[in-house]
Amino acid sequence: MHMIPPPPDSVRLCIHTITTKPWAIEEAVERYAAAGVKGITVWREALAGRDPAAIGTCIRDHGLTVVSVCRGGFFPADTGERRLKAIDENRRCIDQAAALGAPLIVLVCGALAGQALAESRKQIADGIAAVLPHAAAARVRLAIEPLHPMYADERSAVNTVSQARVICNGLKSPWLGIAVDVYHTWWDDHLEEEIRASGQEGTLFAFHLCDWRTPTVDILEDRGLMGEGCIPIRQIRGWMEQAGFKGFNEVEIFSRRRWATDQTQYLEDIKTAYFADV
Ligand code: ZN
Question: What is the mean pLDDT of the chain?
């Protein structure tokens, strides 16, 4: 039996740039800093046309910590040539993260509709193995993010923390771990024990937050603000902390509905929800 933890610490609040997608990264950095947000996870789309080193400096000058880069991965493919291309792209992503000063890359591992999930998982493990030396040399950690099984056709063949642990335990590298996202994992009746096991293995690298709306009208871009849905977010945060996780609580919300609203007000709503429902 576990206690539900008290509201989270403000210094551990991180926001993903995709959450406030209408803002260019420069504006997001300025607004997050002004709002007292301490961490930022940078989506690669937000770096288009920018010098990542300069953006990294800008982020640190505003008193923010770069928590991670989203995202690498997408290893499975139908030909060896395409798989090598994916590996090259991941090496570029590692270089970009290093230039930005990001200590971590989140991996959306990929899948191929029509290919057996077990084969895709093998290609994912092989792809990660191929890029791990580059990640270690750049001192950038990689975090496998298990995705909800509704994405098993083409976004990720890794759908549970258990499957992510199998890959981590197979490769055994201090540079490889797991990103637990409540949206993708809340339904798993083994989640508590899997988080505990991952903590013991030293692979709890990141924790992502949003909520599950009912009904969900778009499988990608209808995520809820914390408190708007049915995920026991605070309980899952408690499991993370009991397992030794001390990193940022990262708000990552894809929502066309929210992107269409005033982002300054939305940022205030995020802060309110963070203390009330996380
Ligand atoms: Zn996530």
Answer: 97
